[in-house]
Sequence to fold (734 residues):
Amino acid sequence: MMLQIENLHARVAGKEILKGLSLEVKPGEVHAIMGPNGAGKSTLGNVLAGRSGYEVTQGSVMFDGSNLLEMDPEARAAAGLFLAFQYPVEIPGVNNTYFLRAALNAQRKTRGEAELDSVQFLKLVRERIKEMGMTPDLLNRAVNEGFSGGEKKRNEVFQMAVLEPRLAILDETDSGLDIDALKQVAAGVNALRSPERAFLVITHYQRLLDYIVPDFVHVLADGRIVESGDAQLARELEAHGYAWVRERTPAEAHA
Amino acid sequence: MATQPEELRSALSRRYDAGFVTDIESHSLPPGLDEDTIRALSAIKEEPEWMTDWRLAAYRHWLKMTPPHWAHLKLSPIDFQAISYYSAPKNKPKSLAEVDPKLLETYDKLGVPLHERARLAGVAVDAVFDSVSVANTARDQLAKVGVIFCSMSEAIREHGDLVRQYLGTVVPQGDNYFAALNSAVFSDGSFVFIPKGVRCPMELSTYFRINAGHTGQFERTLIIAEEDSVVSYLEGCTAPMRDDNQLHAAVVELVALERASIKYSTVQNWYPGDENGKGGIYNFVTKRGECRGDDSRISWTQVETGSAITWKYPSCVLRGDRSVGEFHSVALTHHYQQADTGTKMIHIGRDTKSKIVSKGISAGKSQNSYRGLVKVEKGAVNARNHTRCDSILIGKQCGSHTFPYMEIRNPTAIVEHEATTSKISDDQMFYCRSRGISEEDAVSLIVDGFCKQVFRELPMEFAVEAKKLLEVSLEGAIG
Fold:
């Protein structure tokens, strides 16, 4: 098992958001987490990545056999966890290539691997940018500075391609994208699918899952997974809306 | 930074001494300051009479002055009689093995080359330092095109007419309290002369200054760029020149004649005091350049990370028509450091332009102020100024202040001022950390990005070292 979440409870600003979430992810699997606004989808991503202000009150998260909750965010990254942010932040003046090299080398150092010199690294990023079908000017710009919404999301996927995580969490990577950008982002993700790598795709809409076809779909409502299924579940959700899930699980609706 | 052990500080304080030749080592003056001290100093340096008189005039002026009122600085009074105005070397460490390993570690972090480390640590470098030939090559190359680059002492002896013609014409003896003191007692410094039409073939840096790398607390620098000449001068050191001396009062004068261009870059990292605010340099420096000729240009770039107190306003007097003044500054303060720095742009000629970019970084319990004056005189038709001041705060106990002054006497002037103050956001920190970058590295990365606009102005190798210097200075700023 790569990721094992058991009975996870988490609070943000004193308010309980996750209320006993359990989930298991094996290498190679793509899990979609769907749910209405306020269900706790983004909280799950932030708790897994280790953002401060998200307080775990109960439950456990094991990642490749280690207690993920005890690790610093940077240690989680080095262990192979990646969060593609819903709202990537701008870091003015910091060159994107430089940033990524600092990140990759910091991770490699923690893992006891040799750091890449600038020539090796440049070769790597040029390959990746080509594979992702993205424009090389991305490399010369400051991290997310002045990027459009779509460019920011593409940059997240590009970073993922360079950092090659074992588990990638995509937090509403589809939000705010037009159909062309969505296809490009999805193609980038699909290119990275492999038997060793798992994905947690957090999304509000089924649309993204037409392009990134998940192995499992989970419906998150009120801080818990209330229904799990395959890609078909996502289509049914799209057809019937989240109210449909609530009707099917009356106990949750009253929780 | 960790507390500075006594040996380390004393090892560092000897750095000035290493350059003196043996026969003057015995001439050490006891603490105290009066006319006899100045005469003795002038005599040791074998100065002509006009120089001695010049110093004495400055001293007499200084006696009538009172120390400036410090708007935003806290400091203890300075006892000028307790300072020795000329000191000879004592026991230098004989080899690097005798130097505090902690100091060497810092140099290592900064990537300072080994022979440079030795020089900085005050080791008697003549034995181990084989750059003499390099220095001579540089000197020959400069001499071929007529550039003079030597110590101020040497210039006074060898190029007396030039020094006499220009010294004190930009910063007069009585300009301010510390400039007057410097004029009376300056020990050494740099002299640069670029003749008409010459583009100086190399960046002039204090690294390559021959026999004069070790100037005292009262340096005097004079750079003259004749018509159509170009020069770039680099000052200071990228390694921590830690020092327990209390006062550093330098004067720098730049003169740019018609169409000449002077670029002056500084990386200042004097000992900032320990994390409790004990010790450290009072860095009270007067730097001023005059665009004396039409179409001339002076550009100051500074990276200030050291000193307990920095009081420094590299300025441009834009006398020539269409002359241009620039000021690019990064000032970082940590622990109890106080920096009050900025610039003055004095527009006198027509169509003169000035640009100010100031980046302040405050951490710990430090105070960081930008203080700048843009003055447009009556005759300065069509003067333009653009000022941009950005501050970034790290932690909750530091302060950042901006004091922009404007005196506009000509209605055609266009003067713009932009200012921002921000904090390193938790979002930025988390973003970096979620990519695997440690907290400390994330801070320096973000700060580096913040300073980019100024670092771009520095010569390449200086920019790299300035960046490393910020990293070292910010150690322990978070957490």
